[in-house]
Amino acid sequence: MPVTRRLTPVPFTRVTVEDDFWAPRIETNRTATIPAEYMMCESSGRIAAWDLTWSPSDPNPPHIFWDSDVAKWIEAASYTLMTHPDSQLDALLDNAIAKIARAQQPDGYLNTHYIQVEPGKRWTNLRDCHELYCAGHLIEAAVAHYQATGKRTLLDVLCRYADHIDRTFGREPGKLPGYCGHEEIELALVRLFHVTGERRYLDLARYFVDERGQQPYYFDLEARARGEDPANFWAKTYAYMQAHIPVRKQAEVTGHAVRAMYLYSAMADLANETGDTQLLSACERLWDDLCLKRMYLTGGIGPSASNEGFTTPYDLPDETAYAETCAAVGLVFWNHRMLQFEGNGKYADVMERALYNGTISGVSMDGRSFFYVNPLASKGNHHRKGWFDCACCPPNIARMIAGIGGYIYSEGEHDAWVHFYVQGEGRLQVGDLPVRICQVTRYPWDGEVRLTLDMTAPATFRLHLRIPGWCQQYQLWVNDFPMADCQIPADGYVHISRQWVPGDVIRLNLEMPVQYVEANPSVSQTLGRVALQRGPIVYCLESVDNEQLPLDGIIVRGGVPASEMFMPEYRPDLLGGVIVLHGTGGLAGEQPWGNELYRNKTAQYKPVRLTAVPYYAWDNRAPGEMRVWLRIG
Amino acid sequence: MPVTRRLTPVPFTRVTVEDDFWAPRIETNRTATIPAEYMMCESSGRIAAWDLTWSPSDPNPPHIFWDSDVAKWIEAASYTLMTHPDSQLDALLDNAIAKIARAQQPDGYLNTHYIQVEPGKRWTNLRDCHELYCAGHLIEAAVAHYQATGKRTLLDVLCRYADHIDRTFGREPGKLPGYCGHEEIELALVRLFHVTGERRYLDLARYFVDERGQQPYYFDLEARARGEDPANFWAKTYAYMQAHIPVRKQAEVTGHAVRAMYLYSAMADLANETGDTQLLSACERLWDDLCLKRMYLTGGIGPSASNEGFTTPYDLPDETAYAETCAAVGLVFWNHRMLQFEGNGKYADVMERALYNGTISGVSMDGRSFFYVNPLASKGNHHRKGWFDCACCPPNIARMIAGIGGYIYSEGEHDAWVHFYVQGEGRLQVGDLPVRICQVTRYPWDGEVRLTLDMTAPATFRLHLRIPGWCQQYQLWVNDFPMADCQIPADGYVHISRQWVPGDVIRLNLEMPVQYVEANPSVSQTLGRVALQRGPIVYCLESVDNEQLPLDGIIVRGGVPASEMFMPEYRPDLLGGVIVLHGTGGLAGEQPWGNELYRNKTAQYKPVRLTAVPYYAWDNRAPGEMRVWLRIG
Fold first, then answer.
1. Is the same domain home to B202 and B134?
2. Are B560 and A603 contacting, i.e. CB atoms less than 8 angstroms apart?
3. Is residue B369 included in any domain, yes or no?
4. pLDDT tens, position by position, B523-546
5. Which domain holds residue B147?
6. Are the C-beta atoms of residues B515 and B533 closer than 8 Å to each other?
7. Looking at the 3D structure of chain B, how many domains does it have?
8. Contact B528 A552 (CB under 8 A)
9. Which of A515, A528, A561 sits opposite B528 (nearest CB)?
10. Where are the alpha helices (DSSP H) in B56-119?
11. Chain A interface, best mutation among B472, B523, B600, by max A CB count within 10 A
12. pTM over 0.80
């Protein structure tokens, strides 16, 4: 079985997004988020750090993370340039890039912290200090900027830095046999290989991935070289950074969630580039462990604040969920890569779960404030902030939103895939044939999708239309001929192979009733609870819509389908235009619970009106309680 | 505030039990359990061990627990003699006691294990080896046998042993400043003080209680004396035996549940004997922690098998509940003591919960097999056994049942208390006045109770009638005059102060509808679940009554009172005569869970007929699943 990808993603430069859901977000991202993030980089000293004018007597030393924040901003800004030329932004980027270029050392090295704050100590603490991680983000920024503008200004700088890294690290004598405590450079080097054609970068990525977790542990060696006892490692275990055993042997997701996502993304990339079935099998094993046992309903991952990451299977507390925005974004990155191998819809389902819920919850409706942590319940004390000292999340969500169009379609020699339903257009290349797919739909608020095909001539190819995992019934018409047998496909896609004629119309209706979702009973924290979901959107209750009721006292009625209890209503005025769910429930706890351990369950509940809003949109109005998982009784 | 007890329990020798619930159990205990347990003591070598004929070349060395098993059997058998003279049993006891007396060493020491298996090592490992624990049970046996028969044969032996222990342990120079790893001797010494009047025994009990948990830890010292590193203690922490801090400072129940109950019983005894408010406050604090956060609905305590004891607050798993029979019995012992201080019904409620559910589940209907562990759910693989290598539970439940009459009444200078409703008679002494209280009732199957008072002359005293915690409505008549205002009393008792005339009749009707009981939502394991309860009886479903349905797929209907969904029916033929509950529920027509993490909750249930039986009676018929906590939806 070949492991290279059967699918090739259609880049977002060939996709137009014209819907009411993503298009406004892309615009807000471009006009509000990207400028606001630049201002924060500027005012916090992250831009000035590249001037190399900091001296030990100055306050605010360049932090080990800073380069990556600027890099992710450059990447996100470059993406917006690709779909929306903007000479001002172009100039701003050139200015920042010029600073970066000037900061590069003669040997190619480039890191504002080590050059200024710890000169002479470069590459002495790969475990903790994010040096290669920052390099990775700079490489991704350089690739994005080159692709957006055709300018090699940043790309050449980063090639020199990558060359320096290549000379520094490896198994050969005289090189350091190290790898980064925070993965990122691995996937970045694969991207750099793609734009430059330089195979050394791919080999270096493979070295970093394969050396990880080998014994003797490099982190032990470098700790001893620093005069430290490796046993005193603050995180206690190299599982924190997925470096406790070689990656091919890993079967459990461990440690810091963002690191894991970046590593697995690189593993999937390398599996594709090198035909490495072992790496792909490891990814599949890890996917099962993560997505079948450790993923929040929102696509959030990593329940624990203590390691910003994973704990035990089925441990999914709601109010104390960590579920870092970056981790959900990373989950999208990884699953997008996995989806391309065989076009298995389970990967698109995970992407959709995260895209419509736990990633975009990370940014406010106005695009100017951010969640680092995305709990599924709140007493009312959790709110977005304009920036963070550790500012990884804001530019990460920005680069994801800027590139959202790139997730919608894939193409192949004789195949066209539609993964997501987003109004607009995709310009695919099916073999030699340009195929335009035009989508008209109000998804995610409505499951009706009208797709029109446009080619220069009739052509035979397979069209693969995704039936989302949440959908239990759908109808399909090709040029008004209904498809007879609308089974739910095991691989998540309906495959239509025929000779297509320009102007052919496919109509898909994904029935979208309100659903109660329950979690596997192994998740003790959600036992006896359900969440409201409609289409891909997970709902929550917020105090502001629910008369300040104690949300955990609310009990929704079981024994009746959710669609009979909750009615959707489109509210164009609310939260940028959303479907809210109106329904009734009971307010339990006529007596609030005191310290008693048991009591007679009184059966009558006080009926209350409930209004649920999309989870992603919470905390954009009056502050108050929020809750996804509701008691059912 | 005085801390001595306002109430004095009426001993079971002045109580006649003539109902259909306890009387048959007392009889089965006497005729089946006590003989069967003797046979097991005999056949397992526990009786012969007292002959001191074991030698190192023999198999089956006397185990460190064995003396306590025989002692508890002697105690239980003695109790049955008190209410039912039996010359054969009397002779059997004399025979066993003669062996014990002959085994006593010249200095008073008495322990079959150490005398034979580890001579020379006595008192070298108090932490693990139960030496004083065995002594305590022998003392309780001696007191019981003396009270039952008037014979001092065993009592004198144990006084000599207690004197030896008193010479051995204490803070004075030349004595060992130790205490037992398994509490028991403390409460036993208080009993010995009561029958002998010898104050040294009370002082010794107080020493053992107060020395516990003091630093430096005695268990550390003796471990080092044995050449062991105390850090290697197998249970890791002295909290296992409530010896991590002094008992007066303890606010959390910790460790091994049975040990905790015996310690707290001794603390309550000492608080009463010495007027020690600190000890009583500690008991009250520990009671709150235990009974408001850590007690099963059945009165079982100690959820974890790993330490036979306590974990964290609100951790009450059902299928893996340990809930050792001995621990529930110990809970009764402790709460009986606590009840006597002020007559607060909360202690009687806990006793009732354990007495009617989690203690007597420990013995089969025929009295010949036993549960050590009392889970609240079973897949069908948990069954009673005839005996255990560690056989603490069978004789413990036997001594509790033999003495059940002693829990029903208390008396005081001007007061008579009725704690439990059990058909029969109590012969109280209210000050100088003999008062006979005659109960006619079918309790626990029916809440109607008719009490008749009989004295030689009219007399004024307060009669305190308990309104059980489960009762939410009751009616009361004195000589057919209804009491106007039947509020639920805060302290659990209705107090009637008047001049009583011989032949006065009180009629009490405790309304006893079927109830759904829910646990505090902090108990994650029972969230979204209810249990059926009627009166004091907790019900369960067993496969044998429910067409082999998958019991955890059953969903009882919420939003409707339990009394409308479940109908009681008395079945004289079943399980010794029980009220069963007939009702309907839904079988979640769900696909069994596979490895999926989330799914659409299907709302339609297949209606099924359900029959629930008392929890205590489960596993007396065809083996199968059992479940107390049912899903509600």
1. yes
2. yes
3. yes
4. 989 988 999 999 999 999 999 999
5. 48-233
6. yes
7. 4
8. no
9. A528
10. 66-83, 87-103, 112-116
11. B600
12. no
